[in-house]
Each structure stands twice: as structure tokens, then as C-alpha cells.
Amino acid sequence: MFEKILIANRGEIACRIIRTCRRLGVKTVAVYSDADADSLHVQLADEAVRLGPPPAAQSYLLGDAIVAAAKATGAQAIHPGFGFLSEKAAFVEQVEAAGLVFVGPGAAAIAAMGDKIESKKLAAKAGVSTVPGHIGEIADADEALEIARGIGYPVMIKASAGGGGKGMRIAWTDQEVRDGFRSARNEARSSFGDERVFIEKFVEEPRHIEIQVLADGAGNTLYLWERECSIQRRHQKVLEEAPSPFLDEETRAAMGAQAVALCKAVGYRSAGTVEFIVDKHRKFYFLEMNTRLQVEHPVTEMITGLDLVEWMLRIADGETLPFGQDEVAMNGWAMEARLYAEDPTRNFLPSIGRLVRYSEPAQAEGVRVDSGVNEGAEISMYYDPMIAKLVTWGPDRAAAIARMQEALDAFYVRGINHNAAFLSAVMANPRFREGRLSTGFIAEEFPDGFNGVTPSGTLRRELAAVTALLAVRQRRRPAGEAEAAVVFLGEEAMEVTLTTAGEGLTVRVDGVDMGIQGDWRPGQPFFVGTVGGRAMTVQVDPSGAFFRLSHGGVGLVARMLRPRLAELAGLMPVKAKADLSKFILSPMPGLLVSLAVVEGQEVKAGEEIAVIEAMKMENVLRATADAKVATVHAKPGESLAVDQPIVEFA
Q: CA 20, 299, 538, 376: dihedral to nearest 10 degrees?
């Protein structure tokens, strides 16, 4: 085994690789940009080398600097993680020319499969089912439009060197093809240094199911079952699970066999993933191959008991696989939720800032957290918005979901917006629990966006009881016998009756007695206890007489008042919201890439006003009505804060 390796990556995947290396007794070298100088992966590694300024093109994409760092520190091999240089054949050649080992497939396999256009041609030759489309480079928007019309709408525009949802657009009309072609090329150029895109038929009601493969240098190639990755937004995965609730044994075996055939056709070595689109009839089509470790690899590890990073290292060191296909286990069910720095209530736009509070759920049996941050870390605009991956295992799918819901309630993050409440809402969704998934799940189940969960029934009464206990503990005196009060959950007022019961409380809500026990005291971020006999973890953010409660996708402001005070509170005037209809505001922190209007210009509804980029994703802002530009408040190249005015209309 190697004595020392360099990890050419950052964040949670760098930390993930370091943890396996520590277990194997392998020393590690981290690399970092100025934005990551104090990051967790730098702290965990045995050594660290600065690469350059924050932009990836000036740091994590500098192959020369990374190879030089490996040579200077005496590293024998380089693990690329995912993203950045992980699928650059030229980087593999550069590493090997320097006398180092690349922990991954060979340059030829990466060149063949890392390029989506070439990989589809090779897949077809290998007998792998492929999606109808135009396989080849596209010169301009006019050619893209001609191709899209020939294939028939809807179509998918995709970056040839893409991944992670970047450089990808669905188009249903001619105008969407033109807009999508431009944005996909811009994102591809920014993220991958390769602006080529291609177009293929968009399969309706699709499921995204991928096969994990593992191959050594002696020709042994195995598939490690599948992962269902259909829950996506902006074509980027949000939730993954293994195995898929949809596949039968026949389809699973057929997909695995095709994945293995494709790997053998290109002489693949190391871990990799063959991705498929599967329709409602279980007919599957090759989508792409990721010649690297996937973000969602932990769910495969949880059901197989294999450490994929360890096997990548062993294979790179020349070892052969000591087990065959029949020996690959499938034990239980695993779920992975990606905790993103984003605002689900604003169409999942990125959120940037400092993690003022950060507390992960305890890594108990069946719970795993892969993260690359700690309290006080900065989420910057330069990189992917993922904070951590929460992974749970259970003997069956229902148990894995239940553990995920409990762990999400215990994941405490403050200082930025994040998607934990949305993840909880998905887990509780009846369609999700039944396994009726597709890549359109989020758009179909949350057509008006996500604005939190409104509690009803038992959950409503439970949260009212929690609010009552918090209020009693905050005033530091027990409830009297049958004390009357009014609990507000948001704007809803609920009459309750409180009775002290030992160290707990009995709260009568809607004629139902809810016994509540818990050890919460003022200042603690969690209520952990039982309500009506059910174990609950509720996040608590006090603010004067108010509490911000978070549980199971619910986020609301709660308080308890005496009846007379509640009556008077109902007489308080409501502050009117400011009229912002005349402004185009930045929906997120980011860079103003372009501005399409000038002062005095007449614009039509739907016309492009500005383009903002954050975390390598472009967002086009358009006029919502016919108007005249009165004032331009920002210039291209300017960094914008959330809700900062860009354009004001007359």
C-alpha cells in the first residue's frame, strides 16, 4: 500500500478520503485555495499545500501545481476525488509522466467515457441501449434548433464534459432551445473548460438509476448493484438510495451486465458508475459514465460493506479483487440526503455565508455523516453548495427513511439557508414513501415551490405541547393546576390547558391530553423528549417570548400567552409589506455576469434583464411585465447580495 498520497480536491470528499487513509495507515497531503486555507480537509491532512486564489481555474484546476505539490511532499499517488480534474485524461497523463500513480482509471478510459458524445458512440458499439439523439458537436444556436426540431420536443441539452447538473437544460420550445444552448455552453465553459454540448431526446417520466462498477487491472469487473438517484432539482441529485425500489431482479441483472460490458470494452480499471435513464416500463437507456468516485457512493458502501475508496487505492497499487460477483452482498437499504447551502423557498437558489452554528447528528448505528465543514466555516460562492451528506441504513426501506427523518431533525445549521426542512418534507411525502419516483418528482410534488410544511392533526397538537413546555421552562416556574393559555403556531391560535406532571407537563389541546417529557432548558438548541408517547427532536431558536421551531419539515414561530394578552395581541396592527414590484432584485448572493438593459429602455414581459452566476450555476432574470427601465443599480462584474436591487422600473 502507498505510504503517502495527495488528494487533489477539497471539502467533504477530501475529508472522506483522508478518513480511509488514516484507517489504512496512509499519510495524506491536502491542497487548498485561499478560500479554503482554514477548511476542515486542511486540518485533517498530515500536510497541506497552497495552490492559489479561490477561483478553481486558479487553484484546483492547476494540474502543474498539483503534481508539483505531490513531488515536493513525497506523495506516491494522487486521488482526484470527484469534479475538478478527476475526469481529465490529460491530467492522468501528466501525473503518470511525473512518475506518480493516478488513483482511478487510465487516461484512455477517461477520454473514451468521460466525453459524453464519444461515450455514447462506444456504448452503442458495445451493445448498450442508448437514448435517441444527435451525437456530435453543435456549432451554434441555429444548428441546435434544427437538431431539436428533428428529434422532437422535449429535448435535453447537455455539456459533453459535464456533470453535477451543470451545463444541462431541458427545452420544450424553440426559444428554450436558444436560451438553453447559450446557458449550457456558458456553464460548461466555466465549470469544465469545454463548451461543447449535445442534444438528445428527453425521456418523460424517467427514473435515474445508476450501476456502481469496480474493476481491477487483471480484467476482473464487477457491478455493486444500483442506486436510485431520481430525486433531483436543476438536474442535480438531492436524494439517493440503494437499492432501487423500482427494479426487479431481471432488470437489475441486465443493467449490471451492460455496465460490465461497457467497462470491459474500454479496459476500465478502478471504481466508476454507469448511469441509465429508466422509463416506466423498466426499459433503460445509457446516459453517461462517470469515470470517478460518485458523490452518492456511501449508499453502495452501506449495503455492500465495501469501502470504495480503499478499493480504489488497492487497485491503483496493483492489487486484484479477491471476491467475485456472487460474493457481492446486498444487505438492507441505505438513503443519502445532500444537505445544501441553498434556499428551497427561493427555488433552491444558493446561500452563501458563515456557519455560525453547526452540529451534526450523532453517528449512531445506521447513521453516517460525510462532511467537509465545521462550525465557523465559510460557504463561498466559488464552489459547490453541498455542506454535508447524511446517510442512513436500515434493514428495509421504511427503516432507512425513519432513521433519516430522525437524523435530519438533529442536524442543526445556522448562519445560512439550507434544505434540511425540504429533505424532511420529501421523506414524509406519500409518493416518495411508496417509491413512485421520477426525475420530475420535485416539480410535480412541489409545483408552487417549497414554503415549509404546515402542521396538522397529531403533529399540530405535539408542537403546541412542545411550545407550552418551552414557555413554562423559560419563565422558570411550573404551571398551575389547569392553567389556561393560548399557543400560537405561526398565526394560528390554539387554546390549551396546562397541568404540571412531575418533571413534565400535560397539555390539553383540542380536547386531547398530550403528556410531554423533556430536559430542555433556556439556551439549548434542541428539545429532546417524548410527546404523547412519541420520541421527538425539535430544534429551538428562542427570541424573546418567541420560539422558532423546526421539526419534520415544519418551520414556524411559536409562542404562548395568557388569554388576556392573546386577546390584546390580536388587536395589534399588521405591518404592510414593502412594494418591490418595480425592482429586479438579486435572488441570491452572486456575480452579475451580464446586464441586457440600459436606463430609458422599454422592455417586454419575459425579456432578459440580467444573468447572475453563483456556485457555477447561471440564473437568468426576466421582466415580469412590460415596463420602462428607470435606474440601473448594478454593473456587470459586481458581486451582489441577496435582494440587492439591480434594475428599477419607472
A: 40
Contact 479, 465 (CB under 8 A): no
**CA pair distance 541, 560, nearest whole angstrom:** 15
Active site residues: 288
- Grid cell for residue 414: 445556522
Residue 519 — φ and ψ, nearest 5°? -100, 20
Q: Which of 120, 627, 74, 58 is nearest to 382 (CA)?
A: 58
Q: Which amino acid is at 257?
A: A
In this structure, how many other beta carbons lie within 10 angstroms of the beta carbon of residue 49?
19
Indicate the DSSP class of residue 344.
Answer: G
The one-letter amino acid code at 170 reads: I
Nearest alpha carbon to residue 3 among 95, 96, 73: 73
What is the β-pairing status of strands 333-340 and 412-414? Answer: unpaired
- Report the distance separating Cα 45 and Cα 51, nearest Å: 15
pLDDT digits 0-9 by tens, 148-159:
999 889 899 988
Helix, strand, or coil here: 530? strand
Q: Is the pLDDT of residue 163 over 70?
A: no
Spatial separation of the C-alpha atoms in residues 234 and 231, rounded to whole Å:
10
How many helices (H) and strands (E) the chain has is answered by 17, 39
Q: Is 152 left (phi over 0), alpha (psi -120 to 50) or beta?
A: left
Q: Is the pLDDT of residue 615 over 80?
A: no
Phi and psi based region of residue 74 (left: phi greater than 0; alpha: psi -120 to 50; beta: remaining): left
Please give the helix or strand (H or E) that residue 117 lies within, else none: helix 116-125
pLDDT confidence bin for 580, thresholds 50/70/90: confident
The percent of residues in the chain predicted with pLDDT above 90, rounded, is: 78
The span from the first CA to the last CA of the chain, in angstroms, equals 69
Closest CA to 189 of 163, 161, 231: 161
pLDDT reading at 614 higher than 80: no
> Which of 339, 332, 350, 320 lies closest to 387, judged by CA?
339
Q: Which residues of 577-590 are buried (b: 16+ CB within 10 A; e: fewer)?
A: eeeeeebbbbbbbb
Distance CA 589, CA 380 (A): 10
